[in-house]
Amino acid sequence: MKIALVLSILVILSVGIAGCTSNSTNNGAQISQAHAYADAYVNSTKEIIPNAQYEVNIVDNGTDAVRLSMTIMNNTTNGGSSTTSTEALNVKQFATKDDATAFFNNVSFGYMANDSLASAKPGTDAYFITTGHNATTQRGAMQINSLTLVTTSVSVAIQQNEFVIYGTVSTMSAGSSSSPPTLTESQTTVGDNTTYSSSVGFNITYPKTFTIDSSTNASSPVKVYIYLNPSSKIDGVNVATYSLASGEKLNDFIDFNLNALQSNSSLGFYKDFTILNETNLTFAGQPAHQITFQGMIPQQVSATNTTDVSVKETQIWLVNNNTGYVVTYKAAQSDYDTYLLEAESIINSFALT
Fold first, then answer.
1. Among the three residues 149, 177, 205, which one is the final residue of a domain in this structure?
2. Pairing outcome for strands 83-93 and 112-113
3. What's the alpha-carbon Rg for the chain, to the nearest Å?
4. Could you tell me the residue range of the domain that residue 197 belongs to?
5. Are residues 172 and 40 in the same domain?
6. Measured between alpha carbons, how far is 244 from 270 in angstroms, rounded to an integer?
7. Contact (Cβ atoms closer than 8 angstroms) between residue 323 and residue 175
8. Which pLDDT tens digit goes with each residue over 133-156?
9. Fewer CB within 10 Å of terminal CB in the chain, N or C?
């Protein structure tokens, strides 16, 4: 019953962007056909449900992808309650269908297969409008992050030939008094750099050609992941946030993070976990704690197989306004020194807002 409910919510959400106006940001680079796919997706859903009220923002993400984010007010109830939903989706085009399949297998690992997500409108229309033919490979998968009577959060992944669409979909029924805070995000490009801003209270700046993933889901700790190496899903800088109880201090947050790292080690996620150094410092105008450590983590290499990869991380922990921030540079051991200067430049741009 719950699975059926989630699937019905996904159908509602997938057509819930009808009638919107797309606000696009283009840095001047050709974004393959990913931007065209996102635009076609919007136009197709406009024909399906013309009365939904929402906002859509399409932002170029590197040279072969766009990010499609939206908050939707759906008052066309059809006998049910109205809903407010938030979607954070990535549309990425690959050079070949095999490359897309490998990426889909990676991002959907552990999800429940659901190919109907890929074989229905508006996605089928978007693919045909963009390419002029129908997709021969259509795969879908989903994972339920949370499910209550009033709120639902689902991670989804869809492959249509050389395109992969993935991200999170969250919905809340009208009248809920226990909804999580709504997070917003924006990107501003000046010259060669883009600044990512989150309503959770921070900005961070990176070269505009870099690819990022981000989330406006309040229950997801990692808000933005900036990839330093286009051929790796590990090498990058990310920012995570945690809601703290009133009165919790930096020392409490340090203890929390150290315990989490030790727990990951004991559970086998960080094999050979070793702390290399720790120090106190001032970061973003606040007292902070920096730690560098290394270990072995599992990395997905196929739909059914993982391999252990040696990684090295530097994290900075700080607290501001009852929020704990973790700013991380993470890389494969062999890549750590290669991208260190770039990572430090991005980390040093971090600012509280």
1. 177
2. unpaired
3. 20
4. 180-353
5. yes
6. 25
7. no
8. 999 998 988 776 655 444 567 788
9. N
CA proximity to 94, closest of 3, 163, 150: 163
* pTM score: 0.55
Contacts of 126 (CB under 8 A, 6+ apart): 37, 38, 40, 41, 44
d(CA 321, CA 245): 10
| Contact (Cβ atoms closer than 8 angstroms) between residue 248 and residue 348 | no
Helices 34-48/123-131 angle, 10° precision: 130
- Tell which phi-psi region holds residue 62, choosing left (phi > 0), alpha (psi between -120 and 50) or beta: left
287 alpha-carbon distance from chain centroid: 28
Closest listed residue to residue 180, CA positions, set 199, 196, 155: 199
Q: How far is CA 51 from the centre of its chain?
A: 28
Instruction: Report the alpha-carbon distance of residue 254 to residue 288 in Å, rounded.
Output: 9
For 10-22, the pLDDT digits (tens) are: 443 444 333 333 4
Q: Which residues make beta-bridge pairs with 275?
A: 293
Q: Are 232 and 135 within one domain?
A: no
Cα of first residue to Cα of last residue in the chain, in angstroms, is 43
| 346/231 same-domain check | yes
Q: What's the rounded Cα separation, in Å, for the pair 184 and 277?
A: 35
| CATH number of the domain bearing residue 233 | 3.40.1000.10
